[in-house]
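Below is how a single chain appears once it has passed through the pipeline. First comes the sequence as given, then the structure the pipeline wrote out for it. We keep one example in the README because the format questions we get most often are answered faster by looking than by reading.
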Amino acid sequence: MTATTPDSVTCHADERGVVSLVLNRPDAFNALSSQVMQALQNHLDQVAQNPQARVVVLSAQGKAFCAGHDLREMRASPSLAYYQALFHQCSEMMMRLQRLPVPVIAVVNGIATAAGCQLVAMCDLAVSSTTSKFAVSGINLGLFCATPSVALSRNVARKAAFEMLITGDFITAEQALSKGLVNAVVSPDQLDHETERYVNSILAKPRTAVAIGKKLFYEQLEQPLQAAYANAENAMACNMMDDAALEGVQAFIDKRTPSWKVS
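Resulting structure:
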């Protein structure tokens, strides 16, 4: 099994409630070993329980954002039970990203392949440098990227997703933007600035409204139209009863700036 250091994923939270998670295995292209996935899961669980958390920024050290699963680790334990457990662990960690009550922003500066591309797709927002590249390249090794396909097909159009999955070819950051995989593409020296723009926009909104909105957004996508509207009606009614929404609407009526606690 590939060894990882205790700080293979570093975590820092600032006074604003911005939680920075950094993949820190640059020599291994930030591959998702089972230990790294567990570390990510632990940090995400802590964020979920932290009422002061407002937004998560997920980035990486080195030349790669994430090269996917740790193939050396996978090859060392060739059994069906092991692979089933490994991919289930990965799926649980990926789903936790969308179950968090706060938005998660992926900051990509380097390659994002296979489960690394899946990681980008599962984040709520993604900012990429112009030099980044994306692929779901397992097919080139004889392994169709089945679990990444779940996230990818929920972010980009079907034919575009299937093309990436069946060819394994890299796409550029600009192509990722046009396909809807990322929200913005900037030069590497502007990456922090662009990320901060999204962070500040989120911080300016009431946490409750953001949490209600994120939960509803992903739930309704998986529902039939009538059920989606019923879910949305309830979410909006509950949101309207929140003090921040009542103040925001009254401020609009009074033609003044809302006076609310965004936290």
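The radius of gyration is 19 Å.

See the next section for the split statistics.
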